[in-house]
Amino acid sequence: MLSRKRKIGIGIAVCLVLLSSMILMYVERKTASASEIKQNLVVGEMWPIRTVDPVRSGTLVKEKAMIVETLVEANPDFTLKPGLAESWEQINDTQWKFYLRKGVKFHDGTEFTADAVKWSIENALNKSPPLKALTLIKSIEVLDKHTLLFTTENPYAAFPASLVHSSLGIVSPTSEIDDKGNIIKPIGTGPFKLERFDIATGTLYLIRNDDYWSGKPRLERIIIKAIPDPASRAISVEKGEVDFTCDVPYGEIERLKRLGLKVELHATARVYQLTFGNLSDTPYSDVRVRKAISYAIDREAISERTLHGSAEPAVGPIMPTLWWANRNLTEYSYNPERAKELLAEAGWRDVDGDGILEKDGEEFSVTLYTYPERPALQPMAEAIQAMLKDVGIKVEVRVMEYSAIEKHMTDRDMKLASYSVAMVPDPDYYFRKMFHSKGDYNKWGYSNSEMDSLLEHGLMTFDADKRKEVYDRVQEIALDEVPVIYVAYYKVPVVMHDYVKGFVFNPVAHDYMLNLEIYIEGQKTRWR
Amino acid sequence: MLRYIVKRLAIAVFVIFGTSALTFFLLSLTPGDTAVIIIKRAFVGDIEYNPSIVEVKATKDLLGLGNPLYIQYLQWLINALHGDFGRSYVTGRPVLDEILPRLNATIELAIVAAAFSLLVAIPLGVVSAVRQNSGIDYLSMAIATFFVAMPNFWVALILILIFSLYLDLLPATGYGGIEHLILPVITLGAGMAAITMRLTRSSVLEVLRLDYVRTARAKGLDERRIILRHVLKNAMIPVITVVGLQLAHLLAGTVIVETIFAWPGIGKLLIDSVNARDIPVIQGCVFFIAIIVSLVTLITDVIYRFLDPRIKYE
Asked: Domain containing A309 — which CATH number?
């Protein structure tokens, strides 16, 4: 047994060693990389990164990692532009010819040809049933090395727009594929190549594609790390562990700005809307009631105060900066007096003086359901609860997992949810699902024959201006009849250090999209 | 003893498969149609997306979800017995390829956290008991109560704030060297240590009052010797039991810690898979966790036997 003195001596020595190694680590970190500017970008990604198969992780592989590209791309106002396809023309109601860009190569040097496109798209359609429903592709025919003929099941005006979908990123058949057809290492045409994917940590290591057809990117490397917890993302970017991230908790936005980080809030094509249990039954069957609820909501207050500026008040479903938006819609600006008038007209009165309206002996007391997966929804629901109370409607807020809501919600209840208006940059996607009497989202029985025929017509009208007229009218009816109430557009906070330059936000992205003009200017300094 | 171990292993096999059957059927009770959720999470990436009936049917066919439950389970069981745990609905990759690279990250975290908590808790517990009602006793009891009450994620965020943000000594998230291990280990270990420390303290206090300790003192034995050679071994008996149970809970606690620290373990894999209804991966994770827990409890019981020779196993 060691003597007592020896033990104390060893104890002190161990502590000294630990202490000095910690000091050394600290010093090393501070003085390291005082060398030349490295064009490396480290990104903190919000979703878990499980796979790099573009069919399953389209958003990651196309929009963020920029490894693959699609035949058609979209401008920030949602008009279409050529991507890997230089141009396209419609042959007849169900057939389209696409002319591919020449001289493009995949990351491994193989030539980009129509055969590769056919293989890539067919592979995606076989693996993902929703893609088939989205594109309505019946067959793909290779006409020559750079020309393809697509045939759709039905006449489908939104077909070119559907090709923008990130799961349709074109990969080379020479990509590494496992025995079940899942793509393990995608070889695309984009400005960045996949160097390595660390499955366990969910980290992507990307390296520049020097031969990119549209010009060499300035960044040499990109590392995309998955950090699913919003608070952790905020801390990571603050510390400089990542240079760029998005979707941090609202409470952090002011603080990060004060520290000198660039925080940009960008409106997206994702809209928060209120939907009703059933439009054929009281209380929502009366359009005056629906309008009253719309008037009762103070969208400015919700956007600026409840959500700290992370939302923008919405009039209609489409943001005014997008080409398809009808900019002449009459809005339901905050007017609680008008709301009360309408409710009274509809027969709701406060008979017993308790502040809650009644009609035929029943109280106007409903439940507002929402879900936790989108952080803005709960505060928004509570704000709406307070605003509706002011006009005499009693609301109870219940938060539960999205898939559970359907089981619990009754005809008398409301739901607050967010919807992406543009999984593809075409109005048909959202409007048909939401407003057609047989639409997939339309669970509340909205049925208007003029709306139905407009939507069916819009599907088959191929002239862009004529289509705009159709969808303008669709939006007008939606605002007149209020089958759903639009509250606000989701604004995504994008946070980056000030040495990250050249970032351009594109609302076509599902979350955010990196662009090849990004570069690093100056040293990556950390302030503290 | 050997016969006992073999018997326990046989029981463990039943436990593991029983757990997997129970999990499978519980999963089927969760709200929402599995095929719909997989479309939303894995194929489209938009949780509000409502797929049409055609898409749902096609997905069910693609993934074999159309069969009645008991057939799906039996299919899984037969494949599992051959070592084939199926493929993830989310990534399409074999389940073992998802679990194995992440398993050692979780085991690393769990073992180091357990070791840390024991190294802190037991000495502190003994000292508190021996110097009952002294300053150090009150201080450690206060700290222990604090960590028992405070939730994991709060401790994690406070540690990150102090050591990562303000002092800039350690990284906030990630996996790599020792510097990444420290904060997650303290987070996980602190809660465990608090409980173990209090238990150690009360157990030692109890043993100190026993007659044989009084005899030893009367004999003139050095106090330190008494504690280390006589008291400790007996006081550890209830502690070992609880520590064994705690290790099982530790695996559950890793879910939160792994999410906050972006630690690449199976806790995080499990929660992501539950959200996505990725049944093959959930089944696989539960299976491995059941194996680990069964082994840990078996080892605990064996150690128990060595600590207390009065216990005889058949």
From this structure: 3.10.105.10
